[in-house]
Amino acid sequence: MAEIIKIECPICGAMLYIDVEKKVVVKHERVKKKKDVSLEELLEEHKKREDILEVKFKGAAELEKRKQKELEEKIKKALEKKENDNN
Question: Residue 19: beta bridge partners?
Answer without folding.
Answer: 4, 24
